[in-house]
Design brief:
Layout: H1 3-26, H2 42-50, E1 59-62, E2 67-70, H3 79-87, H4 91-101, E3 132-133, E4 140-141
Antiparallel strand pairs: 1-2, 3-4
Helix pairs in contact: 1-3, 1-4
């Protein structure tokens, strides 16, 4: 699947749930968050999951704040993983997420707030590296 096809699916799903998600985001409390089930059709989600490297081929990041496997340098892994990551950076997806979060104007990677594709909380002084990604309910981070 190509990133544009994945982005089309994400845009359709976010668009269908936009009002509910905006309401949930605003009412989610001190740590704002929103959850959307079935963001991708099961076949696409399973295909992306099947493309993930085995845990022993990834680095493990372990601290008091997080425990996750990281697979940076996307060029070393199945091309579908990169396509999935870049689908979330599609301007249409970013625009919809911005509308849900009530951003005025944003570009991809301007904000690393937790609109849940990630459990990462970056620090401004850190510099982004290659993206690491885990499917739908897991972790994506430009700071791997």
């Amino acid at each position: 699947m190509h990133r544009t096809e994945l982005a089309d699916l994400i845009v359709a799903r976010l668009g269908a749930e936009k009002q509910r998600m905006a309401h949930d985001w605003q009412g989610s409390g001190a740590i704002r968050h929103v959850v959307i089930d079935d963001l991708l059709p099961p076949a696409a989600a399973h295909e992306i999951r099947a493309a993930f490297p085995r845990a022993e081929t990834m680095s493990i990041k372990k601290s008091l704040r997080e425990l996750k496997y990281v697979a940076a340098q996307m060029g070393r892994y199945h091309a579908l993983l990169g396509e999935a990551v870049y689908a979330f950076q599609d301007p249409r997806v970013v625009q919809l997420v911005g509308e849900i979060k009530a951003w005025v104007s944003r570009k991809p990677a301007d904000d690393h707030d937790q609109f849940h594709v990630s459990s990462f909380r970056g620090r401004p002084e850190q510099k982004p590296r290659d993206w690491c990604c885990v499917p739908a309910s897991a972790s994506c981070s430009p700071w791997a």
